[in-house]
Write a structure and sequence with these properties.
- This is Complex I NDUFA9 subunit family protein.
- By secondary structure, the protein is an alpha/beta fold.
- The chain has a domain at 4-145: NAD(P)-binding Rossmann-like Domain (Rossmann fold), CATH 3.40.50.
- Helices cover 37% and strands 17% of the residues.
- It contains eleven helices and 13 strands.
- The strands form four sheets. Strands 3-2-1-4-5-6-11 form a seven-stranded parallel β-sheet, with helices on both faces. The chain has a two-stranded parallel sheet with strand order 7-10. Strands 8-13 form a two-stranded parallel sheet.
- The chain binds NADP nicotinamide-adenine-dinucleotide phosphate.
Length: 315
């Protein structure tokens, strides 16, 4: 019989790629999200009735029991970059939400739990994002000692919220900010590789414990901004913004919905976002990992003056 897999946060950037792969395995996929209308757009990724959106809010604990009943695997992809708007606090979503999800899965007798965390998850971090990611991991591991936990670096892909955001900014703003001088290092990972890692954990129970997953190369934030400009054929000044100035801006701007930077993100940027080497990674999962250079220019080309085919028309 087909596996039943509940993907909490399945309509998001990572979720869309995970769901596409799970549908190909023939699994019955439930999407547990708050906005069921958005999730319905994913139904064509599977056969009729194969992908079933369900209303779940892990911050409130609503809809979890129904989403878990009879499931073989639960994948929790829910995470937020900033509280506010329709998002509740980091604590409610990433710490207590993960705990509620694991408790509901356990109560329903679900045998396998996969949790999405983030590189830098650390109970002692200055950042509440990182603290609550660590608390979410601990809550899941307390109930599911064999859970697979993934800590990715920045995730990139055609519909990412990182390179697309900075390319869009460069199209209208004269400068891109280099917070803390842009020295923070990252190991960006392709969304397809993240989805492959998660699907491997679904099919292979020996994938257990924490995996720190980054792509094949590390780059400074400044290098990533330079690369964004080159790939999108745009020019903008790269403006160093010292950490205290960025923190001040983040404190005020961060209160606005969709803010470009928050104080918590400035705190995160003070620490390199690289695998520590203490945990297995992509290599141990048998995934080679695509580079930024191989993937990103194709999807940032739409930002060039005149659009994707602008250069063909001499724009
Ligand atoms: N993207 C990255 O670069 C990156 C890097 C490191 C770690 N991660 C982690 O990877 C995971 C997936 O990230 P993503 O980029 O795919 O995020 P995303 O695009 O923002 O998607 C988040 C998903 O969670 C759902 N959601 C949000 N709040 C919810 C709640 N209270 N209850 C139920 N569902 C909720 C959203 O749908 P609704 O709004 O309809 O509920 C959406 O389906 C997150 O845990 C994130 O922290 C991402």
């Amino acid at each position: 019989m087909a596996q039943v897999i509940t993907v909490l946060g399945g309509s998001g950037f990572v979720g869309r790629h995970v769901v596409q792969r799970l549908a190909k395995t023939g699994a019955q996929v439930r999407l547990g999200v708050r906005n069921i209308e958005l999730a319905k757009r994913l139904k064509p990724l599977g056969d009729v009735g194969q992908i079933v959106p369900m209303t779940v809010d892990i911050a409130r604990g609503t809809g979890l029991a129904a989403a878990m009943a009879g499931a073989d695997v639960v994948i929790n992809l829910v995470g937020i970059l900033a509280p506010g708007g329709s998002n509740k606090s980091f604590q409610a979503v990433q710490a207590e939400g993960a705990q509620r999800a694991a408790e509901a899965a356990k109560a329903a007798g679900v045998p396998r739990f996969i949790q999405m965390s983030a590189l830098g998850a650390d109970a002692d971090s200055e950042s509440e994002y990182a603290q609550t990611k660590a608390a979410g991991e601990a809550a899941v591991l307390a109930l599911y000692p064999d859970a697979a936990i993934f800590r990715p670096s920045i995730i990139f892909g055609p519909d990412d919220g990182f390179f697309n955001k900075f390319a869009a900014m460069a199209r209208t703003a004269p400068a891109l900010p280099l917070i803390g001088g842009g020295a923070t290092r990252f190991q960006p990972i392709f969304v397809g590789d993240v989805a492959d890692a998660i699907v491997k954990a679904v099919t292979d129970p020996s994938v257990r414990g924490i995996y720190e997953i980054g792509g094949p190369k590390a780059y400074s934030f400044k290098e990533l901004m330079q690369f964004t400009l080159t790939a999108s054929h745009l020019s903008a000044l790269l403006l160093p913004v010292p950490f205290p100035v960025a923190a001040f801006i983040g404190l005020f701007v961060g209160m606005l919905p969709g803010a470009p930077i928050t104080l918590d993100q400035v705190k995160l940027l003070k620490v390199d976002n690289l695998p520590s080497g203490k945990f297995p990674g992509l290599k141990e999962l048998g995934i080679a990992g695509a580079t930024v250079e191989a993937i990103m220019p194709a999807y940032l080309a739409r930002f060039q003056p005149g659009g994707r085919f602008g250069s063909l028309h001499g724009a």
